[in-house]
# Entry
Amino acid sequence: MTAIAVDAPRPKSRFLLDRPELVGPLFIAPAILYVFVLVALPFFLAIYYSVSAFTIFDPNYQFVGLKNFIDVIDSSIFQRTLINTFIFTIGAQVIGLLLGKFAAMLLMQEFPGRGIARALVVLPWAVPVSLATLAWLWMFDSLYSVINWTLVAIGLMDPARRWQWLGQQDLAMIAVTVVHAWRLFPFGVVIFIAGFTSVPNDILDAATIDGAGFWRRNYQIILPIIAPIIVIALIFGTVFTFTDLSVVYLLTKGGPINGTHVLGSLAFQVGILSGDVAHGAAICLFLFPFLLVAVIFLLRALRRREI
Amino acid sequence: MTRLARKIAGEGSFYAAVITLVTFAAFPFYWMLITTFKTDGDLYNLKSNPYWFNAAPTLEHLRYLFEDTLFVQWLWNTALIGVCVVAITLAVAVPAGYSLARMPGRSGENLGIGIFLTYLVPPTLLFLPLSRLVSDFGLQDSLWSLVVVYPTFTIPFCTWLLMGFFKSVPREIEEAAIVDGCTVLGAFVKTVLPLSVPAILTVIIFAFTLTMQEFVYALTFVSSSEEKPVTLGVATDLIRGDIFYWGELMGAALIASVPVAIAYNLFLDRFISGITGGAVK
Amino acid sequence: MAAVAVNEIRKKFGDVVAVDGISLEARDGEFMVLLGPSGCGKTTLLRIIAGLEKPTSGQVLIDGQVVNDIPPRGRGVAMVFQSYGLYPHLTVWNNIAFPLRTQGTARDEIKRKVEWAAGLLGIDHLARRRPRELSGGERQRVALARALVRDPTVFLLDEPLSNLDAKLRASARSELKQFQRTVRTATIYVTHDQVEAMGMGDRIAVIDHGRLRQVGTPTEIYEHPADEFVASFLGTPPMNLIEREGGSMGFRPENFLPKELLNGAAVVEFPFRVDRVEYLGSEHILYGSLDGRAAKREVTAKLPAHATLKGISRGAWHVFAVRETELRYFDREGRKTQHP
# Structure
């Protein structure tokens, strides 16, 4: 019998694109490059600047060790800022996600106009941060605030002593928290609806047959099952709020008297507006440990997502 | 209480709750809408009821916005930035997502998660060093700086989305094409891409809306009014000294928000599916 | 008194009639099978009995009481679902304990009952595991234990074997039947698989398009089907149905044999041309046709393996026959009638 098989042809250049070992890395290289150059590199640059005395007025690099960090920690403005960042973040998550869960349960019922309600509820999160914050800025205006007008009209506020939402420390804190919660709650609604609908019907039926009423079904069955999804949403929401700059900058510029700064806005004020890049970078880096923790929790939740 | 009364009370409080929540969410937009069309006299009048028109509505603010400010320029800037960023994102994320989806073993998944995690690195951490990089490259005060930097957050998220999608396309289709004579690249282009139109559309919409929403980098890198995207221009330039031009401001905010809101509503489910890593379909 | 009875149950989903006037009862200790093709309404009926759906009209009675307005937990029913519906975040022990907890049972009573149920089903060693760590068969046993622990009046099972692979199904079938014999609780079992139905049921209710076609023991249903649907739904291969004046005539493949094998009996003869033979190890299936008017339908004969095929060749005509007592007649509407 004549041999049928022939020697396999030597790989020539035209078979280059046939080789997954080449095509694979080639396809992924641009993404990795982009991420490295514009994310990893700046991150290391931030560390580099934070241990220097670099300002735009004096761009000579001098290594100063941890001096900037110590300066920053000693500053009472920074201490206030750090506390604020946590207060806003926790406050916004609690209000926003609780409202979101509540709204999700309502929006899962059938009722006329549900589609419109859903579309409207999504708006705060869908719309650009800066534009939405401007609307609130107008709503909190020192003279023409519609909120104040309404409270005066109902009789709960004295027209001679209107509340300065953005001018008084504690009111300003409330205002910022409300805007954050408002932006966050549609996100919560969508996540909870998605979570609720992902529970298999068999399990819900079994729980009904087993005698579980409405509250038990919700808190002992549904919530534990969708916990990983909620955790992921919580992590994202927390990161969004914790690292915010836009809301605070546009609403209060960090005022009154630096009382509502968060890490982001303070870093902007120090690093860009005042030109002190070194101290600004140091402030920014305080975000990092927090992000690390968030990433670790997120990874764990992502691994757990298949029950 | 009779059964009927209890039913009415139950339904009543249900609708009351729904209306309260919807009002809480949507009121600021109503406020934007009505402010845009109110005359200045009506707006800056403490005596009049702010919830409705007390004088006839006017188009004055919109006229001013379009004719006497750089609003149209900002819209154009945003569109330009958006298109360029989408193009870059597609060019980088589509191959990357595909490569990660087809990578053998768990390394693809891990690398994918790694890239996705960079989405969590916030602009507020990077804006300072990036501003130095931007000026070193001579891109300061130009919208091209944004075109270069924005993909840092669109690429991670879109790669993750596409990876999930490509994983769901069965390998048999590409293998059939390869047996029929295509290269790996050819098989990808001819069989997988045509099937991926919905996913690619989602990526386009997301990349565009993420771009439209950004504020921090824009604030940091751009200071000349002509170069500003609309989210920045509206927030900084419609103010003279301490005076806010609220009618114009709200009009601009409204016009710039509408496309994003519509897009989000259409693609919400996919976004959630993407974030939760496909745990929720 | 019947453990469960349904009276003229009708269920409409919009314009679609899922259940069309079914009345049925399952006695104490009986294993009643609801058998029918997909979409025939059997699962809907089961869910109505459970209380997960409300009937459009008709009554459900458990232990003689009308329970239409009573929610599932008040009916004394326990259900095992097709995918078992185990709580993924709870251990096996807590899965089984759950229905007792909702009733506010005392701690030590819960412990006693859970251990008893787990022991009965041989799953004690799995108590600390989670459902995702269990095999299909183990999950089914956990679902049964959870159902058992409530001491229900009736078990409702919705195709619990369909998620098991074929090999496992046979042993799971006999285990289930054993289990039911031990606990002696009335059981209603839904399936589309006639082998399961015949093997497990004390009585079978054949349902099609929302209507009850026949209810009876496996023997009654198989040997004396009430209509053409029942006749052709049970039996593999299905009963041969031949058109004739005023209706049709039927005979089962295993009764359709070469004349020589039916010596001494009163038979009806049929010329049969064999087109195809399938050898299945334990039997031969012959596919072919009769002559005359009946020629258009394919007719099957089932011969046991030890019967010789000598003299039977493809394409040639042979004389086959059926014992007169094995012939069945159906009228124009498909209902059983006597030999005219």
In short: Chain C has a mean pLDDT of 90.
